[in-house]
Amino acid sequence: MRNKYILIFLLSIMLLLWGCSGSPEKISIGIIPAREPERMLNNFEPVRAYLEKEIGIPVTVTVPDNYFGLIESMNQNKVDIGFLGPFSYVTAEKQIDLEPLLFAARKDTGTSYHSLIIARKDAGIRTIEDLKGKKFAFVDPGSTSGFIIPSALFKSRDIDVNQYFSKTIYSGSHDSVVMDVLNKKVDAGAVADMNLRRVMDYAKIGNEEFIAVWKSDDIPGSPIVARADLDNTLKEKFITAMLLIHEKDPQAIKYFDSNIEKYVATDKSIYNGVRNIANILGEEFVNEHFLQKNQ
């Protein structure tokens, strides 16, 4: 009889432990700092509340200081789902087993976007050659459109940015690059076209202020990724909620980013072009400008 009770007790403990490991108590989301972290958290709040309601467990959101900080948080299991950029995703997947889930379909550019090099119209900069000797702003070493794509452009033209520009800075976000160019902190900068339009709308900046000196080919949209070891049921609930958010809570998605029409499914193969660019730049470049710089 005593052995029977011991067996029942052990089975109860095993079931309790299994239930805890199979049913996460909360989900943590991290977002790359495309603009000021405080404003991003505020704009994402309706989406967070929507997800909490749809998934049925608490949802927390963080915006780290830089792109690498989000990768580190996912690597340390502090973040379950990350809103990454294409390059930060293909870099992160070398360290973490990640599963791309979704990306945004935008009203003007669909599921792709572009890297721009912008300058003030009154600066007299019209070509890449005009940038020589000027002050230039990148977004962050982990930004696809704000660093990696323009870096590949400069490399293709045998331009050493340390010699070509009089000064280079990392502004920290796309919004900050736009404002640094506008306020003449720098002469030109690299930014995503979708972010440029949002800042111009938000800050009521007229079209006469900027000129696009260069525009990239299409870049696949920024992926929302999950750690591969995240509970599958939780992943499915998150995917379903995001696929339906434009129907169930259109104001939430509009408040986060008014240019997003809806979210659609994505997969690893969509980012092969970004992987190719990263390979062309080389592992040494990635380590020097992104991984080691942020450690």
TrEMBL record:
InterPro entries: PhnD (IPR005770), Phosphnate-bd (IPR017797). One of its GO terms (cellular component) is ATP-binding cassette (ABC) transporter complex. One of its GO terms (biological process) is transmembrane transport. Keywords: Signal. It holds the Pfam family Phosphonate-bd. It comes from the Bacteria. The keyword Lipid biosynthesis does not apply. Belongs to the phosphate/phosphite/phosphonate binding protein family. NCBIfam families: 3A0109s03R, PhnD. PANTHER family: PHOSPHONATES-BINDING PERIPLASMIC PROTEIN. This is Phosphonate ABC transporter phosphate-binding periplasmic component.
